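Subject: sequence -> structure tokens, single chain

Hey, anyone have a minute? Need the predicted structure for the following. Not urgent.
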Amino acid sequence: MTVARAIELFRLFLLASRDKRRAIERILKGADEEVAKQSGGTRVEKIFVRGKLGYRPGFEDVWVENIPYDLRERIKARLCLQYLVEMKAFDANSARSLVDEIDPYVREKGNFPRSATIKIDDYFNDRAGRLQVLRRELIASVRGDGRYFLKVD
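Reply:
Had a minute. Here:
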């Protein structure tokens, strides 16, 4: 399968209903196990999907509604998303504090010095402005109180 075909199939997967996605995941799990058998035990790297968010382990590659984002060079954005997914912060009730939780995690894991001013937009800065689009599409604030969650559903 070509990379272009795989990307197209992934886009179709993201557009599918929840029930269809579950059925596709069951099929892919079986296909992944078959590929592992045929390739001498080497497993194919999985793509995880939560609502409109798709990501590879490590969050280097992220997709939001068919739009790919390469976060290999954007460690703060990658760690922020990873933390919110790990904490299952998918609605206002499970939102996490930027100052008390998200930023300390990002700074520790990324080995960044502590900053005097902390803004979520600073994590999603790039020259082209693509990461600002990712941030607006995916990360929501809880009434401006400094807590954030992922808008995946």
